[in-house]
Amino acid sequence: VQLQASGGGLVQAGGSLRLSCAASGRTFETSAMGWFRQAPGKEREFVAAISWSGGTFYAGSVKGRFTISRDNTKNTVFLGMSSLKPEDTAVYYCAARQSTYGTSRADEYDYWGQGTLVTVSS
Fold first, then answer.
1. pLDDT tens digits, one per residue of 14-69
2. Which of 65, 70, 102, 110 is a good FRET partner for 96, with 20 to 30 A between their CA atoms?
């Protein structure tokens, strides 16, 4: 599976962005997908995950503001982000797992995209 993330950019605090992650490979439909982020000088952290059937869960810091979704007909997973804060500034990575269920553990994902930068100005 190859992953290509896009949609990052510069946005003001309180604004919105939608990230996309296009996946190649025939196993997308049965793969759980996740989004992670890494801010400068910090470790990579979990953001959200979605199972093959659409079940979702989120990090506490983004719950209620971010929405993960998937379109299996387009082999794409999305991360809708609203009410953005400066502390959301990071490189956002999508990841795929050879399992039907997602996890918050980065070491349990098998494939990673190249990352897309989100910068939230105050």
1. 999 999 999 987 677 788 999 999 999 999 999 999 998 899 999 999 999 999 99
2. 65
Contact 111, 5 (CB under 8 A): no
Half-sphere exposure of 89 (CA within 13 A, CB side): 12
Locus of tokens 């609203």: 82
CA–CA separation, 7 vs 114, rounded Å?
12
Average pLDDT, the chain: 95
Cα angle 69, 8, 1; round to 5: 55
- The long-range contacts involving 45-49, CB below 8 angstroms and separated by at least 24 positions, are 46/104, 46/105, 46/106, 47/79, 47/92, 48/79, 49/102, 49/103, 49/104
Phi/psi at 22 (5° precision):
-90, 130
Sequential DSSP letters for 49-74: EE-TTS-EEE-TTTBTTEEEEEETTT
**Which residues, 6+ apart, have CB-to-CB distance to 107 below 8 Å?**
none
Using CA atoms, how far apart are residues 98 and 87, in angstroms rounded to an integer? 31
